[in-house]
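Lab manual, section 2.4: Encoding a predicted structure.

Procedure: take the sequence of the chain (132 residues), apply the prediction step described in section 2.3, and record the output as C-alpha cells. A sample record is shown.
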Amino acid sequence: QVYLVESGGGLVHHGGSLRLSCVSSKHTFKDSAMAWFRQAAENDREFVAAISWNGNTVYYADAVNGRFTISRDNSKNTVYLQMNNLKSEDTARYFCAADLAAMYAGSYTLTTARDKKNYDYWGRGTQVTVSS
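Recorded output:
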C-alpha cells in the first residue's frame, strides 16, 4: 500500500524551477518528520532536505542549500519542495519519506534527518530532468 504520493516532476531547462508535492494518506502525517531524497541513475539515494513535524526545523544538503526550499502544510497532509535555479546535476528521481519516530526522540538533528534508515514510509518518486 502506498501512503506517500509525489507529483510535480518533469522536464525543465537549466536555471528553471519546479515545485514537488508529496501527499500523505496517513493520519500520522502531522507527527512525522518529512524529507526529500533523490536518486540519479546508478547512484545511491541521497538526502536533499528535511522538515520537522511542526515545520520549525529544516535541513538541506549542501548541494541544494540556497536553491531549494522545503515546507509543509499539515492541514493538507502535504510536504513541498520548491526547486529554483535547477542544474543538470539535479536530474534524478525524487522521493519523499516519513519518519514517525523523530518527534519522540528529544531532538531532531541533521544526522537523524539524513539517515535513510530512519524513515518508515517512502513514496514511489517523481522524475526531475534538467536539460542544459
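Check your result against the sample. The helical segments are 110-114.
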